[in-house]
Amino acid sequence: VRSMTVEQVGKQYLEELTRRSLLLVVERNDKGRVKTCQMHDLLREL
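== Disease resistance protein winged helix domain-containing protein ==
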């Protein structure tokens, strides 16, 4: 983990949260990367 950049760590967290459906992908860019996302409603209630 120490050899990873902040951006790489952030990307891993984003991928994990979307995989678990805690964040929902709203839009992707032309390269397939997440452009916008939103938090799942159930997560807000926690």
